[in-house]
Design a protein that fits this description.
- It comes from Galactobacter caseinivorans.
- Part of the 50S ribosomal subunit.
- This is Large ribosomal subunit protein uL24.
- The chain has about 120 residues and is mainly beta.
- It has a domain of about 80 residues: SH3 type barrels.
- Helix content is about 0%, strand content about 50%.
- The chain has no helices and ten strands.
- A six-stranded antiparallel beta sheet has the order 6-3-2-1-7-8, with no helix packed on it. The chain has a two-stranded antiparallel ribbon with strand order 4-5. A two-stranded antiparallel sheet has the order 9-10.
- The mean pLDDT is about 90.
Length: about 120
Amino acid sequence: MGAKIKKGDLVQVITGANAKRGGDLGKQGKVLRVFPTDSRILVEGVNVVTKHSKVGQTDRGSKTGGIEHIEAPIHVSNVALVDPETKKPTRVGFREETVTKDGVEKTVRVRYAKASGKAL
């Protein structure tokens, strides 16, 4: 079975704390990385955590380390794919379409947004 959410997709957070309480509910972002074994994804600008790394020095003498803000993985069930037509969260379906290329017919599986029926 193909993955419903892939790298580069636009997703929206559908569960969790709302923005008034410092959460990410309703935020949209691009998927940076997918961890299929853990069922987690890394979303741009979502679940940002503060990481403290030890201050060091490079060979050229510049300082490294300090406080960094990085994205942490979020569970795939907490996000929904954004429909390209309505810009709202939607479910994902799969359908088989026949494509003709260079006179050869080929059947391919296509992901589509269930709300609008548009291919993703």
